[in-house]
Amino acid sequence: MPASDAAGRLGVNDLECLRQIGWLEAALPEPPRPGDFLARVVVHHRASLEVHDGRESFSAKPVPRLRHALGDASQRPTVGDWVWVRARADEWHVIDLLPRRSVLMRGAAGDRYGRQSLAANVDLVLIVVGADRDFNLRRIERYLTLVAGSGAQPIVVLTKIDKLAEGELADFREALAQTTDAPTFCINAKDSDSVAPLLADLQPGQTAVLVGSSGAGKSTLTNRLAGVDLRTGAVRERDGRGRHTTVTRQLVQLPGGACLIDTPGLREIKFTGEEPSETPLFDDIEDLAGGCRFRDCSHQEEPGCAVQSAVAEGKLDPQRLASWRKLNAESSQRQAEAQEFARRQSRKASRQR
Ligand SMILES: Nc1nc2c(ncn2[C@@H]2O[C@H](COP(=O)(O)OP(=O)(O)O)[C@@H](O)[C@H]2O)c(=O)[nH]1
Ligand SMILES: [Mg+2]
Ligand SMILES: [Zn+2]
Q: Same domain, yes or no, for 190 and 289?
């Protein structure tokens, strides 16, 4: 057990301490058993979790029920989760999860349907994109789609603007503005002054998670925001990827009172099939569609299609229309898989009762 237990510090919750790591409720819930206490998952390792009680962090093992969670990985404890911790046989155990107020999920990699929670109880998702070959509007749309189902708000952070030539930044800004209404910050992640406006935007008590490709500048930004030095790496010339890549997700406290979760880059941004079908992401297309002659217009070859007219007039980027079509098709496919998965899960749950 951590040494501090002998001093009687661990094992007793202090509301003020929990606030430091993002606890928002006015009071503490009743523990499942006397002696259980609340902590927040700050690092996610393969077999164990690092949890924090607002004073210090320590390692804790999720009980088997939570590790397996009926084969639904999204229900296992993840970074940002609030958990009940119990002392048992000289070890700390995570025995239960508190309900999440938001959770950023993606479809699990691989052929079988699955969901993975990337971060729980987050207010903001910072989509970090480098102003270099990393920049890809279609990928940003995919991130925005995931965020739309999370309960958190998106912010786009364009990094590496110090590498741009005169006038190039305006093009990036323009492209972003046509893709999303989300607040956008254009920064040099290595420069404290440059990240200051973003830091000022993160309110005390808020939790933000960083997502984006490997090498986009997430860890560099975390370091600047936190004023500490986590490991970041020089980008390899060949593929633009960071060398000391972040391998675990971790939560750090920021000077202004917000919390930040750094993540490793996602190789695949797969949908869960539970993203809302109505998102502000393609408002421009949905608005235009209101002007189509047919209510169920698919915007392909129908006469009187306002969307196709907008493309012809150069008012709508045809790539954006193609992206909208592709994302819709993919979402419906994943939605069907998600429904099948939900049916299987409820059969499993009823067998366990
Ligand atoms: N010039 C410049 N380099 C940056 C910026 N942000 C990140 N880098 C560099 O890009 C590389 C990858 O950054 P890192 O933070 O490890 O990316 P991560 O994989 O997203 O965590 C490192 O060499 C950083 O120094 C930036 O805004 N400007
Ligand atoms: Mg990193
Ligand atoms: Zn149409």
A: no
